Amino acid sequence: MTRGAASRPARERLLAAAGELFYEAGIAATGVDAVLARAGAAPATMYAHFAGKDALVAAYLEQRLEAWRQTWDDVLAERDDPVDRLLSLFDAVARYRSREGTRRGCAFLAAATELPADHPGHRWLEADTRLLVDRLGALASAAGLESPEDAAATLLLLYDGALGRFARAATTPGLPADDPLVRARRLASAWVGAQLAGQRRS
Question: What is the enclosing helix (H) or strand (E) of 87?
Answer without folding.
Answer: none
